[in-house]
Design brief:
By secondary structure, this protein is of the alpha/beta class. It folds into two domains: 3-322, TIM Barrel, CATH 3.20.20; 331-422, Alpha-Beta Plaits (2-Layer Sandwich), CATH 3.30.70.20. The protein contains 14 helices and 20 strands. It has helices at 29-38, 85-98, 115-126, 156-169, 185-195, 238-252, 265-274, 283-288, 292-307, 312-315, 326-331, 350-357, 393-397, 419-422, and strands spanning 7-9, 12-14, 18-20, 42-44, 62-67, 70-76, 103-108, 132-137, 174-178, 199-202, 206-208, 212-213, 218-219, 230-233, 256-259, 278-281, 336-340, 363-369, 377-383, 404-408. The strands form six sheets. It has an eight-stranded parallel beta barrel with strand order 3-4-7-8-9-10-15-16, surrounded by seven helices. A four-stranded antiparallel sheet has the order 5-6-14-11, with no helix packed on it. Helix 1 (29-38) runs parallel beside helix 2 and helix 3 (115-126) runs parallel beside helix 4 (156-169).
Amino acid sequence: MNQRLKTDFLGFEMENPWCVASAPPTATGRLMADAFEAGWGAAIMKTVGPVEEPIINVAPRIQTMKKWNREIAMQNIELITDRRLSVWLDELKTLRKRYPKKMIIGSIMAPGHDMDAWAKLIESMNQVGCDAVELNLGCPHGMPERDMGAVCSQDADIVYNIVSTAKAASKVPILTKLTPNVTNIKVMAQAAKRGGSDAITVINTVNGIIGIDIYKRKPHLSVNGYTAVGGISGNAVKPMGLKCVAECKQQTGLPVSATGGIANWSDGVEYLLMGADQLQVCTEIMIRGFKIVAGMNKGLESYLDQMGFDSISEAKGDLYKSVTSFETLLKHSSSEKVQVNEDTCTGCNLCVVACDNAGYDALLLKEIADTKRTQGTRKVAEVIVDKCTGCNLCVAVCPVPECMSLYDSKKAFPYQLDPSYSENTLR
């Protein structure tokens, strides 16, 4: 075990910041044990609901979206655990005895109107030695129709009532898992803090439909021709996850367990820099397996070496403080322009097409002497400086690392638009 990867979360010293999220990979005690054996620092059981609540899944219920032969997103319409609470309690007790140095987190869900049901589930968790309990207020499919899941964290009063009830009954710290499918997640995070939540978990899955088979003329995730809005997860939702981590940290200052789109060690570092304290993974495990944690640990160690950090705590950042309003960005803006490294430019023309069709027409290809040959020329991109407004699109689409970059032109801001853009173009 690498001591440098240890991290404290809610008073528990995890051997690394990686946690298996509450989902199919934690559907049984055996799977949680497999995760621990593979090297994960924590695992959250698949959410359990009230004893009397029937849980029946449909088939099929999972589909992925691929780009370049790589899964970038997944839709699922799977429900919470369909196993008996009594079975879970026995397994959690066994896990506690077998893995005393692993962080074991319970996960519960009940109707937003039934505080007695929440209290009973907390009492059950109190019996098994969990290190914390996560309140699942985020599931976007199947459960909201029963007044559970995402519908609960779309109402601040319900969030407050659930969290305060759970906190009063619990012997261990409480995490509140919020849905991103809400107009203002800050309001919900603040309600959780007022209720006494010890930490926030964001994000649960994003509402969506994974896609359409255009030849069979039916949804990719189809149950005899029908589909439903489900939860989208995977690397594609990381931008939404980062946004929610920033907003929840800004609003509450509470520890955050980040989940949403973590596919490798560098994704995890992005969340740590944004201010997250624990890193949950689900979709990548479902696709690649528990053993990915070894590579994730190795990547983290290499990152610490590169940056000269001695621990994960040193590597953590507070970039959530940098997330601000558009008005503030205007106050800090300068007249950025693009410059091209002609030595590495391949003349592929991608930047020229992008700049032209995105509105500014500030790039063209020019011929220069090909110094790698005794004679001849080659094409490279050239910036029309007066037309460039520093939008960064060309830098983003350029396939050659660091071939194009922004610099401060030292000109006045806001910049003067080129006449070819500001005048009537349809004469």
